Fold:
Amino acid sequence: KLNRRVPSIENDSVSSSPMMQPIEHASLTGDALDFKGATEPLTSRSLSVEKKVVLVRHGLSSWNAESRIQ
Structure:
């Protein structure tokens, strides 16, 4: 079992000290979780209010051109 931890969402507000829970497995590449862990929700509850998501794309880098993971 790794000692790596991920935040646990308790409510819709931002907390300066989020609850933490241990994870059973994690990718060994830096601090990123594997793809499955990155797409699983941290809570099964629906959001109480609508959220706005803004996507920003940076310019083409040499790593993007080579299809490298950043």
